[in-house]
Amino acid sequence: MNAADELMNSLMRPGVLPDSAQGVELIETHISWVLLAGGHAWKLKKPLDLGFLDFSTVERRRAACEAELRLNRRTAPELYEAVVPVLGTPGAPRLGRAPEEDGEAPIDFLVRMRRFDQAALFAHLLDEGQLVPALFDRLARHVADFHAVAAVAKPGGGFGDADAVHAPVRQNFEQIRERIDDPAMLDVLGRVETWAEARFAALRPVFDARLAGGRVRECHGDLHLGNLIVLDGEPRLFDAIEFSAELRWTDVAADIAFLVMDLQARGRAELGGRFLNAWLERCGDYEGLRVLPYYLSYRAMVRAKIAAIRAAQLDGGARDACLAECRRYLALAAAQAEPAAPALLIACGLSGSGKTSQSQPLLERWGVIRVRADVERKRLFGLAAEAASGSALRGGLYSAEATARTYARLADLAHAVVEAGYPVLVDATFLLRAQRRRFAELAGALGVPFVILAFDAPLEILSERVRRRAAAGADASEADRVVLDAQLSTHEALEAGERERVLDVDTRSAPDWHALLPGLAALWPGVLSRAADREDR
């Protein structure tokens, strides 16, 4: 028995770790042991050098433990408590105090964490059908706020430039090709590789621009369902990558791509769409959509590589299962290269007509990206979406000049989303024909279908909705009955020419989007392919 195994076994003995009299449970990964005793978990890193990580010496393990503590306290300070030295010998260990306080050279180090119920993991909740979709809205805010304060990479620092982005992508293809011999899988691999190389060539200046623009940060690096937990009722990230700066310092779009891909792989693309939209709304990084398919494909290829590596180590049915998993992730990577069906939709209607609440199914079912006037107006003026502006009717944020700036910003964002290959829904009142005409002309210039979703409900329903929303004070909209009355007096009805591009959406009750799909498809034929694609995923 080597010293590391001996130490782990000694720590498993009742009484060595605090609160371990009733026994110790062990969770083992390929790089660490996690010992569960009482209300705590103790992580001991294995003395490995795998190339992409090096825990081969006590000092390297200490540095990794300290990095793990620092990194994960950014998002889950309630879980990550301390780095604890191990003193004595592997056969007779005892825990020390802070690393510098004992006057004795530690033989190893542990990360002490608050123990949590595995049933609180997002992966478990999803498998059990207990993951509430609205939780992804809160998760998106948590992730966006984390990214907003994460350390920023500088050009020339070795992280996030185009070559650094593409190196691990190329490595995936090489390492998979070494381990599989199935002609069909190799064919898919070749097609994905050709697409990835072409996208890299086209996106090279974009990657460098995003680095210069501060979008490459010290992120989580391993943001998937297994590293998400509901803690004290709120979603939290944990287990960030501590062993590889290259994997951790990445584009924020690459960070969230892992979760979106993970949900697609599990057949829950609608949850990925919900998370993506909420994250974009919070951070405003709609330009990140240009690189998102590239990163989604990369994340799927990472999973395909891991499955191929496992398959090469196994025989029989276990090997076949790993190859099937590899095949599934290759198909998912290839799906990111399929032609998109972009369109420009506008959700017009008076306040309270349900433009935001009742358009949510479009985001989840058909991968539409929504841009909200209420949010972007406040962002232009440096306010959070839920902040009260204190502006009077037709003053402050709602002056004619501010409104013009808002619609210009919406047009810019719609242009960016469509150019990235996604359908966009611009959520605004669009009271004036000139406002609607501007977006119709933009759709024409971009060569994509233009659709007017005309949301409407009786006045008494509109009035009650804005009253309730204003009383709650939790929405980006600041409309009340005074604002609604002003809209009624200035609203310009849809003209006959506009009606050709209109799909009426009655929101007296929740609209049946399945029933509305044929009408929408008549105006935007590509929605049918998007619907079929997301059902397949």
Automatic annotation (TrEMBL):
Cross-referenced InterPro entries: Aminoglycoside_PTrfase, Cell-binding_unc_protein, Kinase-like_dom_sf, P-loop_NTPase
Pfam families hit by this protein: AAA_33 (PF13671), APH (PF01636)
Domain of life (superkingdom): Bacteria
Location of the Aminoglycoside phosphotransferase domain: 63-291
Entries under PANTHER family matching the protein: GLUCONOKINASE, SLR0207 PROTEIN
Protein name: Aminoglycoside phosphotransferase domain-containing protein
Natural source organism: Thauera linaloolentis (strain DSM 12138 / JCM 21573 / CCUG 41526 / CIP 105981 / IAM 15112 / NBRC 102519 / 47Lol)
